[in-house]
Design brief:
Elements: H1 6-12, H2 23-33, E1 41-48, E2 60-64, E3 75-78, H3 81-89, E4 94-96, H4 98-107, E5 114-117, H5 122-125, H6 129-132, H7 150-158, E6 161-165, E7 171-178, H8 183-199, E8 210-217, E9 223-225, H9 227-230
Parallel strand pairs: 3-4, 3-5
Antiparallel strand pairs: 1-7, 1-8, 2-6, 8-9
Helix pairs in contact: 2-8
Organism: Desulfoscipio gibsoniae DSM 7213
Function: Protein L1 is also a translational repressor protein, it controls the translation of the L11 operon by binding to its mRNA. Binds directly to 23S rRNA. The L1 stalk is quite mobile in the ribosome, and is involved in E site tRNA release.
Family: Belongs to the universal ribosomal protein uL1 family.
């Protein structure tokens, strides 16, 4: 296990590892420990009582956090004709069709963070599955990135839309804002995320669903949060 720096070790001493903190208390503790020279991202790690090996226990989707993430993401839209013009007008950073597919295939270009595609483009965009899929960049109807309503899709991404997907360990890891955010706004983002995960709970799931919540900053240790108090 890598040795932690002195700043991390000093921060860790402030945390009671046996305690489940109130959300606001946990966030204020994190903010007090965020001493990096940049605005650290605050991330939530939520352990779910699902077995991701089963298709009927997958948890995946997207949502717009009430107060965004504090980061503007670069958007590529695969579209033609009027939809391409609409995407440009809506603020897409890159817009194209076969030309963009070729650029990614031949040049290995990946200068974007979110890809959106109109449904009629998916036959062409599908050729990029092996490149975009492993990087989580492939447009997907489940996350609202395959749609003819490109304006709304772009606006949601720019407003702080996040995608969540359960990993092999049954956990969700997503950013919920920046350390510079007001504590109340971070707590509201966390609550909205947990409530969304509860709404999409797979019917095949048995027993306790939200098994643990931890919040952390880019450079800091994690703080455990009471799930009951998050949704109270």
């Amino acid at each position: 296990m890598p040795k932690r720096g002195k700043r991390y070790q000093d921060a860790a001493k402030q945390i009671d590892r046996t305690k489940l903190y109130d959300p606001l208390e946990a966030i204020e503790l994190l903010k007090g420990m965020a001493k990096a020279k940049f605005d650290e991202t605050v991330e939530a790690a939520i352990k779910l009582g699902v077995d991701p090996r089963h298709a009927d226990q997958q948890v995946r989707g997207a949502m717009v956090l009430p107060h965004g993430t504090g980061k503007t993401r670069t958007v590529l839209v695969f579209a033609k004709g009027d939809k391409a013009k609409e995407a440009e007008a809506a603020g897409a950073d890159f817009v194209g069709a076969e030309d963009m597919v070729e650029k990614i295939q031949k040049e290995g270009w990946l200068g974007f963070e979110v890809a959106i595609a109109t449904p009629d483009m998916m036959g062409t965009v599908g050729k990029l599955g092996r490149i975009l899929g492993p990087r989580g960049l492939m447009p997907n109807p489940k996350t609202g990135t395959v749609t003819f309503d490109v304006t709304q899709a772009i606006q949601e991404v720019k407003a702080g839309k996040i995608e969540y997907r359960v990993d092999k360990a049954g956990s969700i890891h997503v950013p919920i804002g920046k350390a510079s955010f007001e504590s109340e706004k971070l707590a509201q983002n966390l609550k909205a995320l947990v409530e969304q995960l509860i709404r999409v709970k797979p019917s095949a799931t048995k027993g306790q669903y939200i098994k643990g919540i931890t919040v952390t900053t880019t450079m800091g240790p994690g703080v455990k949060v009471s799930a009951q108090k998050v949704t109270a």
